[in-house]
């Protein structure tokens, strides 16, 4: 299926919903890195990407093909050969990229690469994105956002069956290691949904299992991964798994803008015939919630064009 670059894809009934599509894109490191250079440096050609990324011709070609199918690039032939122009759909991924970048730079331990800090061109300062509510403008914590499934929402429909990474083969496709912990968090089937359940208030093994309907071995495996990444911590009797109380850490809560930005992009560009996958509200208010990212240095709204990396 080729997705249109400038209007939303109309999904078929009953299949993967907007969340599943968004997580499939957000979990692929190469896709994000290719986008980064297209967004910030105007990179359009394979030779230019190969100058700045440690990517093989085969992997780059397969990603550009896939990103074109997804409507993120529109390819054109000119006198210098093939060029890939970023589409409105591709350019709209900047909040996902910025939130992942900031989270990895601050929280990923033993990061194999030192990510440079981002700089806001409007105020000239280094910054991190801060999540605010687009309706009222106030800064929000994860606990201040409520989410409930819409007509196309359910846990199985929100967990992608295949990610871009798994469709490819070979270790070279695993990615260069710029965003290792994000990949560990949302790169597997169920893991993004597990994280979503934690944000919506699941604390016990049985709650995760009941909400997601996933096999117990899968729940146990993802909880182990989240603990080892320091995203969830366990309170309660350490010897009694059934009494474990799982709680998001600061690091886990800090990942929330990544998930919210990705879901928002997904719901903007992938429409299920039944209606939205999830509906968010600003808790304690009378209005819906959607993400506005502010500069931590000057508090102005961020835009994809007004930032650089040091
Ligand atoms: Zn609000
Ligand atoms: Zn600023």
TrEMBL record:
Swiss-Prot/TrEMBL keywords: DNA-binding, Transcription, Transcription regulation
Pfam family, one: HxlR
Single GO term (MF): DNA binding
Region of interest called Disordered, as start-end residue ranges on this chain: 147-172
Domain HTH hxlR-type positions: 12-112, 175-274
Transmembrane segments: none
InterPro entries: HTH_HxlR (IPR002577), WH-like_DNA-bd_sf (IPR036388), WH_DNA-bd_sf (IPR036390)
Family annotation (PANTHER family): TRANSCRIPTIONAL REGULATOR, MARR FAMILY (PTHR33204), TRANSCRIPTIONAL REGULATORY PROTEIN (PTHR33204:SF18)
The protein's name: Transcriptional regulator
Organism: Actinokineospora bangkokensis
Taxonomic lineage from the root: Bacteria, Bacillati, Actinomycetota, Actinomycetes, Pseudonocardiales
């Amino acid at each position: 299926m080729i997705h249109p670059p400038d209007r939303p894809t109309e999904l078929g009934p009953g299949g993967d919903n907007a969340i599943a599509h968004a997580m499939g894109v957000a979990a692929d490191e190469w896709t994000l890195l290719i986008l980064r250079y297209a967004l910030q440096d105007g990179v359009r050609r394979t030779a230019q990407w190969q100058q700045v990324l440690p990517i093989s011709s085969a992997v780059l070609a397969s990603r550009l093909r896939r990103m074109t199918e997804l409507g993120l690039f529109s390819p054109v032939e000119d006198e210098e050969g093939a060029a890939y122009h970023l589409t409105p759909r591709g350019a709209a991924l900047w909040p996902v990229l910025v939130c992942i970048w900031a989270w990895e730079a601050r929280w990923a331990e033993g990061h194999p690469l030192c990510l440079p800090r981002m700089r806001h061109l409007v105020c000239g300062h280094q910054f991190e994105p801060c999540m605010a509510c687009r309706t009222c403008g106030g800064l929000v914590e994860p606990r201040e956002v409520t989410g409930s499934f819409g007509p196309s929402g359910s846990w199985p429909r929100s967990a992608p069956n295949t990610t871009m990474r798994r469709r490819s083969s070979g270790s070279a496709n695993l990615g260069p290691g710029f965003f290792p912990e994000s990949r560990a968090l949302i790169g597997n089937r169920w893991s993004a949904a597990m994280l979503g359940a934690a944000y919506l208030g699941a604390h016990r093994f049985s709650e995760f299992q009941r909400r997601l309907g996933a096999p117990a071995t899968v729940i146990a495996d993802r909880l182990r991964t989240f603990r080892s990444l320091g995203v969830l911590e366990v309170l309660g009797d350490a010897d009694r798994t059934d009494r474990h109380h799982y709680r998001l850490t600061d690091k886990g809560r800090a990942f929330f803008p990544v998930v919210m930005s990705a879901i928002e992009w997904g719901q903007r560009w992938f429409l299920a015939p039944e209606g939205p996958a999830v509906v968010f509200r600003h808790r304690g208010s009378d209005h819906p919630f959607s993400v506005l990212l502010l500069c931590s240095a000057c508090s102005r709204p961020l835009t994809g064009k007004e930032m650089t990396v040091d």
